[in-house]
Amino acid sequence: MNTLDSQIIRPTLLLNKQKCINNIEAMIARAQRANARLRPHFKTHQSAEVGNWFKEKGIDCIAVSSVEMAKYFADHGWKDITVAIPVNVREIDLINELASKIQLNLVIESRESILFLESELQHKLGIFIKVDTGYHRCGIPSEAIGSIQILTDLMKESEKLECQGFLAHTGHNYKASDQQEIHKNHSKTLLDLNELKDVFRKEIPNIELSLGDTPACSISEEFYGIDELRPGNFVFYDIMQYVLGSCEENEIAVAMACPVIARNIDRNELVIHGGGVHFSKEFIEADSEGTKLFGSLVRITENGWSEILGGGFLAELSQEHGIIRCSDELFDEFTIGDLIGILPVHSCMTANLMRNYLSTDGNWISTMNS
Amino acid sequence: MNTLDSQIIRPTLLLNKQKCINNIEAMIARAQRANARLRPHFKTHQSAEVGNWFKEKGIDCIAVSSVEMAKYFADHGWKDITVAIPVNVREIDLINELASKIQLNLVIESRESILFLESELQHKLGIFIKVDTGYHRCGIPSEAIGSIQILTDLMKESEKLECQGFLAHTGHNYKASDQQEIHKNHSKTLLDLNELKDVFRKEIPNIELSLGDTPACSISEEFYGIDELRPGNFVFYDIMQYVLGSCEENEIAVAMACPVIARNIDRNELVIHGGGVHFSKEFIEADSEGTKLFGSLVRITENGWSEILGGGFLAELSQEHGIIRCSDELFDEFTIGDLIGILPVHSCMTANLMRNYLSTDGNWISTMNS
């Protein structure tokens, strides 16, 4: 019997394909109810094979977080790709190569970027103007109509840059303290984007609004005026999303399987092979005293993993070691060489580090980093 | 003129070879003064080419942090390798393969690991017992003589496991608040290890003591009784080591070059392409209010980088974006498409993510992750 356990030698990211497909179907249904296109963000999985699960459900456009990632997915047959980060103009050669083959859309927020592209582009591409609706990472403040107008005016005269509308990311939703805050942030993004649509509707033909954060796309049913949803993390979810209320525990589709390499009975600690180079050092604060949580524990089963185990958590990470603090009971359950499962705090960062995944039905899945 | 600037398209880890070689020579000199072998930890650079710079200076043994990394360096000609993490027994097939070809040394701290190896090994290998001198990550407490005796007794009867002595890591030195604390922690490790040497000297022929942390190996001249130094980070150093006082600013041998992709004049923020997937999310607290610092700023020059720029720092990271907060002056200096340099907080984690390096003399250097 070819159980998972016998296939795992070192830290391994397990992926439950059925859970992924359920998550994909649920988001497709939500986008349909919102009457919006789903353009899933593929930075989470970075895998052509996982991408195909979307394709099989009818998805034909995606977002990515770098021009290199756009190239990888273009090479795997995707024909409509938005690079959802302000354009790095140094990538112009690869941008030109991709724009000659597919519908490539870039994101800009500055006059300089537009002038550069206008001068260096050899092919047409779509442009979204990045607007800031409260996250304050990047984008033009949505109320700065004058600054936005400068950009739309520049594009009006361009034969290569086709302004497609406005793109926002309610990234502050990942730091929300409860669902009410997510709804509030999301409402402001909706209001701001729709106001821009009203202002620029006449001068930008077929103007579109694109938003995408997994928390709002997972819990809200309100997307008036929005043409496109762009969430990414939902395909895997993780502990951060579970704590935010974006998903149920059984919707988390990835778990890291790590071998126990040492045990300390005085401190009730299990040491695993599995560190910052596997999980990333992202954590959430588990209590008001600032206790760091790097992952929750599950038992690895014959073809997947159990519910979250009470009485323990991944408490520390160095480069290759992880420290699990646990109850007497859990401590006694695991010995040297056993596998223990960890639901990661941030699946995007963990998946990026792991470079390939083992599906719970026993197949290795490669990524652009394999 | 082939300047660095023209070679850089996306986030790129620059490496100053001469600084690396200076760091290597300084550590070799320190080990010689201490009358100890230098067994550098290669988890920092993970590169056969950087490894050769050590080999050219006469280094012939190394430490690594996984059996896979041991295989990579064995494939590149290294014949004496210690895997300096408690053994993951699931790697037994690769362990046997390597032990048939090179002098392989493993680290153990449990009866279970010894019994497993004794039963499954096909070749001789060296064993270090991991002892804990205060870091409390793993290892048997150095005062637990009885527990250690159980392990040495088991190995006395083994024909495959050759006990080589004791290995410790003063990892709490990375969290020290000043140099005095580093000296204090280091003194305790020296005392503890030497006491063990005295106790087990008779029963373990050629007993050895191995310690290795970059802070103590960089600032102490006191290594009595120690046979082997095992630091790793010193080849690159980083901001964390600079803050600890382990290195001078001009000994930091790596800097990330990142393109500016957006600017926000209201917040004096530069947005770079360069995020958690490039730097890792490791940070240090820059002040008593908990301000996070993910890296310090430098100017990229024709063949390297400048001194640290005052008036700004890398303040936030998401997956692919970084946010630099800076003074008016710095803000005005950088426009869209310019490169800005960042000295990373933790070079080991950053190098692991970047997978290859661009030397400041214009050559690409590959790693085991390339």
TrEMBL record, chains A, B:
It comes from the Bacteria. Gene3D superfamilies: Alanine racemase (3.20.20.10), D-serine dehydratase-like domain (2.40.37.20). Keywords: Lyase. Residues 253-361 form the D-serine dehydratase-like domain. The keyword Transmembrane helix does not apply. SMART domains: D-ser_dehydrat. Belongs to the DSD1 family. This is Alanine racemase. It comes from Marinifilum caeruleilacunae.
